[in-house]
Design a protein that fits this description.
This protein has a single domain, classed as Hypothetical Protein Ychn, Chain: A (3-Layer(aba) Sandwich). It has four helices and five strands. Helix 1 runs parallel beside helix 2. The longest helix has 14 residues. The relative contact order is 0.26.
């Protein structure tokens, strides 16, 4: 099974993100081994408590032990520090690369 890490840069891909990525990972039938996510730019809005994706993101952090890293500067510049899902690590690109070390593919949306 191929290992994959994802970089999420946009907010306007909710259906793709939920239906094609998150739900299959949560259900365990994605056909890949998700290792890490990096949210940057407008993509950080997927990480807000109470958002459409919050429950599934929390699940992949806790039960699937997948690293979820948010760009510290993207969070800070949007003043979202206090509304990010628990368990999301704030960091920089190096933190994502460290989490994704050795993956077969990095996919960016």
């Amino acid at each position: 099974m191929k290992s994959v890490a994802f970089i999420i840069t946009r907010q306007n891909l909710s259906e793709l993100f939920e239906d094609d990525i998150l739900i299959p990972i949560v259900k365990g039938d994605s056909g890949l081994k998700a290792v890490a996510f990096y949210f940057v730019g407008e993509g950080v809005y997927h990480l807000l408590k109470g958002s459409r994706h919050a429950k599934n993101i929390k699940s992949i952090i806790e039960s699937k032990q997948i690293a979820v890293v948010a760009s510290e500067s993207s969070i800070r510049n949007r003043k979202l520090q206090n509304v990010v899902i628990d368990g999301v690590k704030l960091g920089v690109l190096k933190d994502f690369y460290d989490s994704a070390a050795g993956v077969d593919h990095i996919i960016s949306f």
